[in-house]
Amino acid sequence: MKKKYTPTDRLITKITGWIAVCIVAALAVWGSVSLKNYYQYEQTNDAQVQEYLNPVISRAGGFIVAVRFEENQEVKKGDTLLLIDNREYVLQQKQTQAALQKTWAQLKVLESNTGTTEKEAAAAQAQVDASKAKVWKQQLDYNRYEKLYHEESATKQRLEDVKATLDVNESEYRSSQDTYAASVSKIHDIQAEKTVVQAEIARLQALLDRHRLDVSYTAVIAAYDGRMGRRTVEVGQMIDAGDTLAFIVNNETDKWVVANYKETQIKDMQIGDHVKIIADSYPDREFQGTIISLSPATGSSFSLLPPDNSTGNYVKIVQRIPVRIRVDGKRKDIDVLKLGMNVNVYAHKKHSNG
């Protein structure tokens, strides 16, 4: 008996046939595109966007009195990110400034004493010269009277008076020499003391510079243009020097992609080659990149515990080579690529012509 098909059955069969044709056509197009891409490109989806992500670290300890940024905020180089209570650091700076001023005053006193002592030494030198002249004159008188005494033209008493005067003058001469020597020695002592004070001034000046640095460290500023990441501090929190306070992404450097290609894919790759980048977040948007370096070793070689094939449990696994790719284009155009995003990278194959 011949089976009859209703109009509904025929319609369902027709629709199903068209759906099958569309599926086959779509699979054919997808297969053609995939084969074309496979023929033209070395591709990998093991790739992420990278940027310089740096921690904001405190160089001074204390209580936080102000936080002037929010997470994900754009900041400019020199912007103040947060303030630390600086009163203790300011007091230390003032103490050192006072000690430095006191030491400068001591140096001025020593310089004044040096001038006074030099004048005293000059007066003592003049006294030495005067005493020397008196001794010379009295020696001549003594020689003359001694000759007259031997010629019986002068009395012994007169000769003794002249000799006594000569002895007194010689004593005064030696005393003036000692006074002058003491003045010179005192000048040398003052000079040595000035050297000590000058060294103390240098030490206090260095200490003052250090305290000024400590005061400046209480204002944490942005080292470059960037975007703030996760914030981990609040006003009133006690921090120590070296604590990580936040994270900042550097906007002044290039973005790049680290694409982990299989070792069988990199034989034709060279620095300077251009590649195509498609982010998972923007599948309809194509970015351009340039290969800037290839890793000198596989990724596993840099791991904490690299595999040791000599242990006898060797299993051959295709290794990955990190390839660093700079993202080309204007900053405003590539800022949609965020740190850590997954991307697909397509590098042109170099086919030989025979």
From TrEMBL:
Q: Membrane topology per the record?
A: Single-pass membrane protein
Signal peptide (from-to): none
Q: What is this protein called?
A: HlyD family secretion protein
Pfam families (UniProt xref): Beta-barrel_AAEA, BSH_RND
Q: Which residues cross the membrane?
A: 12-33
Which keywords annotate this record?
Membrane, Transmembrane, Transmembrane helix
Localization, per the record, is: Membrane
Taking every annotated instance into account, which residue ranges of this chain make up the domain Multidrug resistance protein MdtA-like barrel-sandwich hybrid? 56-249
Major localisation: membrane
Which GO terms of type biological process are on file?
transmembrane transport
Q: What species was this sequence derived from?
A: Chryseobacterium pennipullorum
Enumerate the PANTHER family for this protein.
MEMBRANE FUSION SUBUNIT OF EMRAB-TOLC MULTIDRUG EFFLUX PUMP, TRANSPORT PROTEIN COMB
Q: Which residues form the p-hydroxybenzoic acid efflux pump subunit AaeA-like beta-barrel domain?
A: 257-343
One cellular-component annotation, GO: membrane
